[in-house]
Amino acid sequence: MSLLRETALVAGKDLRIEARSRVALYQILPFGGVVILLFAFALDPDRGILPRVAPGLFWVAVLLAALLAVSRSFAVEAGNGARDGLRLSGLDGSSIFLGKAAAVALELLALEIVLGVAVALLYDVEVHAPVLVALTVVTATVGVATTGTLYGVLAAGLRVRETLVPVLLLPVVAPVMLGATRASEAAVEGVPSEGWPWVALLALVAALYTGMGMLAFGPLLEET
Amino acid sequence: MSDRLLHPRVATGLGFASLAALVVLAILALDVAPPDAVQGDAQRLMYVHVPTAWLAYLAFGVTALASALYLWPRTRSAVWDRLAGASAELGVLFTGLTLILGSLWGRPVWGIWWAWDARLVSTAVLFFLYVGYLALRRIPGAGREKRCAIAALIAVVDVPIVHFSVEWWRTLHQQGTVFNQELSAEIHGTMAVTLWWSVLTFTLLYVYLLDRRYRLASLEAGREERELATAIAERLAEADPEPVEAGATR
Amino acid sequence: MSLAVRLRSAVCLLGRYPALAGADLDVREGEIVLLSGANGAGKTTLLRAVAGLVPLYSGTGEVLGHDLVRDRRGARRRLALVGHETFCYDDLTVGENLRFASRAAGRPADAGDAAIERVGLTRQNGVTHGRLSAGQRRRLALAVALARQPDLLLLDEPHAGLDAAGRAVVDAVISAAPSEGRTVVLASHELDRARALAGREVVLSAGRTVAGVVEPELARA
Question: What's C111's domain CATH number?
């Protein structure tokens, strides 16, 4: 079976499980919402800082939600020997990686749309340059999803995986955080030209970690 | 020979050489080199801060290279895994030192404990990359070496990206700090000599400590292998009427 | 006739414990071989090693033409393991799980439907995995294996936890295997039943195979 078909099979499996269990909808999305709310408690809306820091806060909330999404992606494989099942399935490691990362990315994209609207409304932010925003969101999400899936499988069989993945993942996605925030700020401030270089960086990271994931996922799955 | 990196005599010699070099460095840095025109004596911290920063990245490079050699089937060997771990421990030490020294330097000169300077921020991210790697190393289990090796390579790919993106970010919001001066300003004469001497000294120290840490790791691994051989022998003896000698293989 | 499985002096570790401490095994294509032995003798580990899930610490092995040392993933598409777990997803239905298993193995999607019928779970097709009883899960585990249409079927105590009807299903599948071009290796404590099905028995003791080929009538109880 081709890489694309196998990827679609795995992604479809994960998305169908999400549609059935609704974990992202009822747990991860509200989590993101509460984080956005808590930032307002921490930063006092009356002082007028919120619109200026909104892009950064949005991406921090997304990153934290991504930790949960990745954790969930592998929690699904923890029961009934499902990881053994994946190994025995004969599916190529790259396909499983792309499929799981794609499912996580799609869930995150849906989450970002909702949270983005929430931030725009709650923090009183106007967004110009929608194309810049769209591309920023897509490249940043792919970067986070692929890196997260890679670390997710690395930690999958370990008892300490819930605390390990964040400490491994967050430093590595720091550049994504940086690029996404700067590009979003450029979109909010109406100077898209400053944002495009950052999008290029995000695309580079996304491509790089997609490649690495395709190489490393299979061997890592065998070891966990 | 895989239980140590250097011949014992070489290692001992290196240890003494490092010590001597440190003494010389102390003299050079604290006495011979002149104080900075602007920053005064505080600038002498450069003679420790620069080498520790250099070693922070060198140690990571060694960890990454050793990890790659471990993963490559033709060169796979526990030697590389041990080297990667040893270098990472030294690396986190030097990275931490770089951050502390950077903080100590900023305080008397600029009155702040921390500057969001590109180099310091990149070093801080490097610190957390190290910490994560070391946390991973502590987790036992099958496939540990492979897991750690892959993690090191994922992280090392990230290092230049972090460096570049942070550099770019901080130059857009220009802030002159103490650290921009150390390499952009012209350093000549005794200051230059001292700086090079400091880099050499610390590199010698790094190699010496690396060898020692590696030897420790080898001893630990040797003990584990002996325990494994005993376990296998005991298992075989369960079925055999005569006991099998520990360490014997079928 | 070629060998489906060939192990020589296989040693496999679980952590640091040598679960297999020198196993030899020859299985010809189309054979049904029984692995017997006390608990902890290494039967499960041997089956998992043949499936390529556990690497060989030492020794050699070949499964369906793939070297176990160099290419332990190679034979996976053509074999199936029925272990203690079902390898399924709790939130998906029986039908969905089987469809995933068959398509992942490169088989047509309706292979799953055929498998459900064979194990007698047709009425549970739309039930989510999480709601199945233990016995139903055992049948499902077998169905997952059959949906993959394997050339080599590895069964780890397939009768355990099944009622009489379930055991009959398992027996039927095993008996039919040679005519379907399938090789079977099964590990079992139900020696009477298994010996009636198997052509040959291999005894495992403390991680090692004991004296190779033993005809069922002569095997010690």
Answer: 3.40.50.300
What order do you get walking across the sheet with C17-28 strand by strand? C17-28, C3-14, C58-63, C66-67
Taking only the tens place, the pLDDT of each residue in C19-29 is 998 899 999 99
Q: Using a CB–CB cutoff of 8 Å, tell me whether C150 touches chain A.
A: no
Buried b (16+ CB within 10 A) or exposed e, C114-146: bbbebbebeebeeebbeebeeebbbbbbbbbbb
pLDDT in tens, A162-220: 999 999 999 999 999 999 999 999 998 888 888 999 999 999 999 999 999 999 999 99
How far apart, in whole angstroms, are the C-alpha atoms of residue B203 and residue B47? 13
Q: Which residue of C has its CA nearest to B237?
A: C206
For B128, the token pair is: 């957390």
Q: Say which of A158, A179, A197 has its CB closest to residue B139.
A: A158
In a domain, C220, yes or no: no
Q: Where are the domains of chain B?
A: 13-239
pLDDT of residue A20: 95
Q: Say what the pLDDT of residue C211 is.
A: 63
**pLDDT tens-place string over residues A54-86:** 999 999 999 999 999 999 999 999 999 999 999
Q: Is the pLDDT of residue B3 over 60?
A: yes
What is the arithmetic mean of pLDDT over A98-104?
98
Segment A92-106 mean pLDDT:
97
CA distances from B34 to A67, B21, B133, C144 (A): 51, 19, 40, 78
Pinpoint the alpha helices (H) of B28-77: 46-71
- C205 contacts on B by Cβ (under 8 Å): 239
A93, C104, C137 from A87: Cα distances, Å:
8, 11, 20
Tell me how close the Cα of A172 comes to any Cα of chain B, in angstroms. 6
pLDDT at A44 over 50: yes
Give the pairing of strands C208-214 and C200-205.
Answer: antiparallel
Parent domain of C135: 3-214
Q: Which residues from A are below 8 Å from B157, CB to CB?
A: 208, 212
| Distance, CA of B242 to CA of B33 (rounded, Å) | 74
Predicted local confidence at residue B242, as pLDDT: 44
Chain B residue whose CA is closest to C16: B228
Q: Which of C76, C84, C100 sits opposite A88 (nearest CB)?
A: C76
Residue of A nearest to C74 (CA): A90
| Structure confidence at residue C127 (pLDDT) | 95
Interface of B with A (CB under 8 A): 125, 128-129, 131-132, 135-136, 139, 141-143, 146-147, 150-151, 153-155, 157-158, 161-162, 165-166, 168-169
The reply to whether residue C76 touches residue A82, judged by beta carbons under 8 angstroms, is no
| Residue C87 contacts residue C101 (beta carbons within 8 Å) | yes
Q: Measuring CA to CA, which residue among A18, A13, A20 is closest to residue A29?
A: A18
Write out the two tokens for C20.
């297999």
Q: Looking at the complex, does the CB of residue C21 fall below 8 Å from at least one CB of chain B?
A: yes
Q: β-pairing, C66-67 with C208-214?
A: unpaired
Question: Structurally, how many domains does chain C consist of?
Answer: 1
- CA of C21, closest CA in chain B: separation in Å? 6
Angle at C55 between CA C52 and CA C61, to 5 degrees: 70
Residue at C178 is within a domain: yes
Give tens-digit pLDDT for B143-187: 899 999 999 999 999 999 999 999 888 876 555 444 555 555 566
What pLDDT, in 10s, does the model give residues B60-119? 999 999 999 999 989 998 999 999 999 999 999 999 999 998 888 878 777 788 878 888
C219 assigned to some structural domain: no
Stretch 28-67 of chain A: residues touching chain B, C-beta under 8 Å: none
Question: Which two tokens mark B9?
Answer: 């005599």
